[in-house]
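Record now logged underneath.
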Amino acid sequence: MNQRLLSPHASRRQIGAALLATAAATVLPGCASTATTAPAPRKTFVLLAPGWAGAWVYRDTIAQLRAQGHTVYAPTLTGLADRSHLRTAQVNLDTHIRDVVDLLKWEDLKDVVLVGHSTTGAVVAGVAEQALPRIGSVVMLNAYLHEDGRSVFDYMSARVQADITARLAKGETGLPPPPASYYAMPSAPTARAQALLSPQPLGAMTQKVKLTGALERVPKKTYVMLATFARGKDFETVHYRRAQSLPGWTTREVEMGHLPMLDQPEAFTRLLLSVA
């Protein structure tokens, strides 16, 4: 306290206020001042839903991230969920890549955390080919880690491949979702998923992606295996093992099901923030 700032006739109240102000401004040795703690950096997330789902699957995640000051987009890809009326035989992987590239362009998004889940791993790889400078980080959740010239169909199980082939022969445009019980969630999120999952456009599953390696040039790349679901399924774990073998990738294995944003929303949000 600077005694020269106090009048010789200062009241006890004035002296007490000055002492309190001095104490508040004093940081004891070894104690950090909370006033100088930098806030957590705000991020821009673009969340791509897994096959058969749309933006609805991220409802809780979006709310939680925005409540913490982050910017969040979760585009529903053409032909799915609230855009299922747009599903035609012409909707393919290029369509879904364009959905995201156009979002990045028209919203002028930069340093984006682009999240791909399951079949939308192909979309992430395609977006990187066209909008690499706008992507700061990629997070893959049980996602198909594509090689050049491969399609989602190529990575599916033989049973699903046979189903897709038969539907294409009949002129169908979508693959119906698996029963929501397949995801082994509690009853409430299972009922919600059962009501909202929609057919996946077949063209997005059969078109082969053209890659030049842009994804590998993204500054930060993380692959997360949602092990409770993926464990024991070779068509899922092969992509995790591939990420482990590639330079520049960080890999994590967590005990979560395939749709943790539905049955473990808070834990899922924390996971996203930890890897973004």
User: Anything to note?
Assistant: Confidence is low (pLDDT under 50) at residues 1-35. The beta strands are 44-47, 71-73, 112-117, 135-141, 174-175, 200-201, 220-226, 249-254. The chain has one domain: 44-275. Residues 151 and 207 are 6 Å apart (CA to CA).
